[in-house]
Amino acid sequence: MSTLSAWFGRIHQSAKTVVIGMGITWRYMVRPKEIITIEYGSKNRAPKDRYIPDRHRGIHYLESEKCIHCHICEKACPVDCIVMDGSREPFSGAWQGDGSYISKFTLDLNKCIFCNLCCEPCPKDCIHMGQEFDMSGFTRSHGVKNLLTDQPWSAADRAREAEARTLIEAAEAEAKARKAAEKKGA
Amino acid sequence: MDTQTLVQWVLGENPGFWPQLIGVVAAWALPITVWVSLVGLISIWLERKISAHIQCRLGPMEVGPHGALQTIADGVKLLAKEDIIPDGADRFLFALAPILAFAGTFVSFAVIPFGPDLIIADLDAGLYFLAAVGSLEAIGVIAAGWASNNKWSLFGSVRAATQVVSYEIPMGLAFVTVAVVAGTLSITGIVEQQSGMIWNWYLFRNPVMPIAFISYYIASLAECKRAPFDLPEAESELVSGFHTEYSGMRFAIFFLAEYAAMYVVSALASVMFLGGWYTGIAPLDRAVAESGLWANALGALVIITKSFALIFVQMWLRWTLPRIRLDQMMTLCLKVMVPIGMFTLVIAALWQALVPEGAALDAAGHPAHPVVGSVTGMLVFVFLIVGGSMWVRSTIRATTSFKTANYRA
After folding, report:
1. Do B19 and B108 fall into the same domain?
2. pLDDT digits (tens, 9 = 90+) for B121-167
3. Last residue of a domain, one of B56, B79, B102
4. Chain A: nearest CA to B405, how far in angstroms?
5. Are residues A9 and B395, on separate chains, in Cβ contact within 8 Å?
6. Are residues B74 and B104 in the same domain?
């Protein structure tokens, strides 16, 4: 192999690879396989279930009708961003929980680290990480969410959540049954 | 003219000087400023859209239809930003650098034509002038890097100096090749010789002109510091190279200079190789040549279209190729492109001397190029490309030591 033909070979290979690369980028430019951008903002916003993963940790939401104001989430919170109060006895302006009457349930998003540690120990499974991600505001007080009144999820969202939960439970039960059957078979 | 006469001339011995200066500013400098800004706006938007679509994204979509006004929004943002000069920076040089960088590109527009009459200064040495002021931008870049008092900036400007000085050589060889073929350095003269049908374009003038065109194009990429030659502002290594410390409007002016330089080299490529303001369809050109206004309008449309087509290819290349290393950049310049430039120059000169050209003028007063000569040139070129690549491929397949030879350099 002479030096000269190696020189020509290099030029040829460079030109060839550039042309191949440009062909690939051209194909992507005129006919992309999939546009992966989802536009942010209100006017072109896609439905939530199309782009928020199920495990996303957004703003919390509270199923206050199940809450027993046991303060476990408040204690579990590593940054003390949850403040709650309530009573066993009904009083005026109270929020009806499960055998309890809640007066206050706030969550300071300025402090929150979205660690999910409040949701895990909840005995009634009533506080959840939601899918709402738009938390920006002009004041710090904007970040303090009253979870009793500020419900990022609509009634339709809650219904869908319940439906999803029943589906998941059914699937889990089925998997358990199948496992048990396999064990029996083995 | 000695200094005293010059001072007298400027200060009032020549009463017509100031009105003349104001006239030139009003007639040319303001429209060119507007055009440069417009080129910047369009190119930046185009760049973002092209990069986005190549990467399966959408790019700017919010401001205006398909984000067309995004660049204006960004420009307003840059105007409103704080103008920071870092501690320890050379304040004067720091302020001067973007002006120098922009001036080099802006002055080039003096000889960049938009149509048969739409050229500010039809210099006899237009190509030479372009080669001279084209490197002025490098001085601005070097000044920016030095004045910033920042190691990243300094590395960026050192790389810029290396790159621009090296790639002046293949670029200059391409200029000389064109000058040899044209017999003139005047931009108008070069374009006039490419009138007529498409095969009169210098791209097809002789077998080596396509090679000269590609060589010029690669060198112009390096001159504009475009990828794959964006070593001076390599984001992954040098933050953003020479303009690391710049913010606000000074940064915007660097950006504008870069995109204006892209337009200048692309317009120059279309002037030197792609027939300038001629459409390549002789009857059409002849029909509009009668009316001065329409000839200029069509000319402007044609040359801007050609330039933006070449700008598009620059962007396409940028989002295709990775950045090359410094040693690879120098190898490409000095070991590959300079020999190729020499080769094209020698062959073009020999072709000019040996192959008979039609010296007579046609009815319209343009030089009548023999179709036979140009077509022969095109055929020889195709033969060279096809035969050469087949020979090279067979050589590559015949040997196994190519791979190691390939990666050694």
Report:
1. no
2. 778 888 888 888 877 888 888 888 888 888 888 888 888 888 888 88
3. B79
4. 7
5. yes
6. no
| Cβ neighbours of B170 in A, within 8 Å | none
Give the residue numbers spanning the domain of B373. Answer: 81-355+367-401
- Using a CB-CB cut-off of 8 Å, the residues of chain B touching A22 are 316-317, 320
ipTM confidence: 0.70
Residue B360 lies in a domain: no
- What angle is formed at CA B217 by the lines to CA B214 and CA B218, rounded to 5 degrees? 90
Interface membership of B338 toward A (CB under 8 Å) = no
Instruction: Render pLDDT for A49-98 as a digit per residue (tens, 0 to 9).
Output: 456 677 788 888 888 888 888 889 999 999 999 998 888 888 887 888 88
Q: Which of B57, B389, B399 shows the shortest C-beta gap to A12?
A: B389
- Taken in order B218, B221, B225, B231, the sign of the CA dihedral is negative
B76-80 CB contacts, 8 Å cutoff, 24+ apart = B78/B248, B78/B249, B78/B251, B78/B252, B79/B248, B79/B249, B79/B252
Residues B183 and B328 in one domain: yes
For chain A, say whether B132 makes contact (Cβ under 8 Å): no
Note whether residue B409 is domain-resident: no
The rounded distance, in Å, linking the Cα atoms of B163 and B233 is 12
Residue of B nearest to A29 (CA): B54
Residues B24 and B120 in one domain: no
Taking CA–CA distances from B316, the nearest residue in chain A reads: A22
| Interface contact B319-A24, CB threshold 8 A | no
The answer to whether residues A126 and A67 touch, using CB atoms and an 8 Å cutoff, is: yes
Looking at CATH, the fold of the domain delimited by A60-154 is given as Alpha-Beta Plaits (3.30.70)
Q: Are A100 and A88 a contacting pair, CB within 8 Å?
A: yes
Task: Assess if residue B111 is contained within a domain.
Answer: yes
A-B Cβ pairs (cutoff 8 Å, strict): 71
* DSSP secondary structure letter of residue A99: S
Q: Look up the pTM and report it.
A: 0.71
- A8 with B406: Cβ contact below 8 A: no
Are B306 and B259 part of one and the same domain? Answer: yes
Mean pLDDT of B266-289: 82
Q: Does residue B361 sit within a domain?
A: no
In this complex, is the C-beta atom of B385 within 8 Å of any C-beta atom belonging to chain A? no
Q: Which of B79, B97, B117 is the last residue of a domain?
A: B79
Q: Which of B62, B321, B406 sits opposite A18 (nearest CB)?
A: B321
Residues B241 and B135 grouped into a single domain: yes
Q: Is cis: bond before B228, omega within 30 of 0?
A: yes
Question: Burial of B22 by CB count in 10 Å (0-12 exposed, 13-18 middle, 19+ buried)?
Answer: exposed
Number of domains making up chain B = 2
- B327 and B378 co-located in one domain: yes
Which residues of A make CB contacts under 8 Å with B?
1, 5-13, 18, 21-22, 24-26, 28-29, 32-37, 39, 41, 44
The radius of gyration of chain B's CA atoms, rounded to the nearest angstrom, is 23
Taking contacts as CB-CB distances below 8 angstroms, the residues of chain B near A9 are 392, 395-396, 402, 405-406
Together in a domain, B72 and B100: no
